[in-house]
Amino acid sequence: MRERVRFALEGAQGLERCSQQFRTFPAKMQEFNEVNLLLVHASPESSGVPISDRDERLRLSIHERERLSRQGWLELYAPSSRDLIELAQSLGRPHATRAGGSIIDRLVPTERQQARPGTMSYHLGFEEFPFHTDGAYLRIPPRFILLRLADGADSLRPTLVCPFSSLSLSNGESETLTRDVWVVRGSRRPFLSPILSDSTVHGHTLLRFDLFCMKPASRRSEQSAQILESALKKANPVEVIWTPNQALVLDNWRTLHARGEGPLDRNEGRILERVSVRSGG
Ligand SMILES: O=C(O)CCC(=O)C(=O)O
To answer: What is the DSSP string of 112-158?
Structure first.
């Protein structure tokens, strides 16, 4: 049984905008005062979204940071795109996924013929997306991915979330994932990387997995994909059902996500906003 996540937003909808600066659910507003996080601001010129001049910026409470760190993902209340950017700023440095692009991507299910080469839609169209990490083609993939249902959008498709730690791999299987080498393409120069790397970012074990930009460097390395795929088949992912003003934060270095099944073979009005965040910590 998948854990189903649905937002109880009704009570939050009527909040004044000044209360919404605290972004979080009403019951958690007092936690805001606990916050004392370093903010690293995105450069406004690289964003299509205005960066706020307010003194108070939305940020994760200590309690939410702790939950994100424990679970590898977190749901949040973000009533606007600007809120999403501010939350992203509180986690690190938001950046465009493609050079010259906007800081906020709009993810719209697209049929194969119309999709940009290199994207998952190009290979899969309206189908489900398999479990992956985002930006796997980058030497250092974004640390955090923030997703939000765009204003006016609607979707019956869930996003599935699966923290690596929930896969309960044996030590031997984790070692294979750390040892087997893959060729990663999609950025300027291909490079080699294992699926689980201890050496990419000091002090972190980084998970990289996207079979559309990674190929085993040798027959032997195929074993690591089999290990991960078989563990994912048995996994019990969290199923996030999208509702208005809902946002999701993923620790992209240790949590996989997937696009769930849709009821229709066309886009039913789903638009997700996505912000990628660089952060060392
Ligand atoms: O649509 C979703 O639920 C997730 C989208 C996704 O996985 C992606 O674009 O990388």
So the answer is: GGGSPTTSHHHHHTTSPEEEE-TTTTSSS--SEEEEEEPTT---SPP
Residue 121's pLDDT is: 94
CATH number of the structural domain 15-278: 3.60.130.10
**Distances in whole angstroms, Cα of residue 115 to Cα of each of 54, 101, 120, 269:** 38, 16, 8, 17
The domain limits of the chain are 15-278
Q: What is the mean pLDDT of residues 113-124?
A: 92
Atom 5 of ligand 1, nearest CA residue: 259
Which ligand 1 atom sits closest to the C-alpha of 260?
Answer: 3
Contact 205, 169 (CB under 8 A): no
The β-bridge partners of 105 are 274
Q: What mean pLDDT value characterizes the chain? A: 83
| Ligand 1 atom 4: residue of nearest CA | 259
Mutate to test the pocket of ligand 1, among 155, 213, 259 (most ligand atoms within 8 A of CB): 259
CA distances in angstroms from 221 to 133, 183, 197, 256, listed in the order given: 18, 10, 14, 20
- CA of 272 relative to ligand 1 center, distance in Å: 8
pTM of the model: 0.82
H-run or E-run covering 274: strand 272-278
Radius of gyration of the chain (CA): 19
Tens digits of per-residue pLDDT, 221-267?
999 999 999 999 999 999 999 999 999 999 999 999 999 998 766 77
Element (H, E) at 84: helix 81-91
**209 Cβ contact partners less than 8 Å away, ≥ 6 residues apart:** 131, 132, 133, 136, 195, 228, 256
Task: Kindly indicate the confidence band of residue 125, based on its pLDDT and cuts at 50, 70 and 90.
Answer: very high
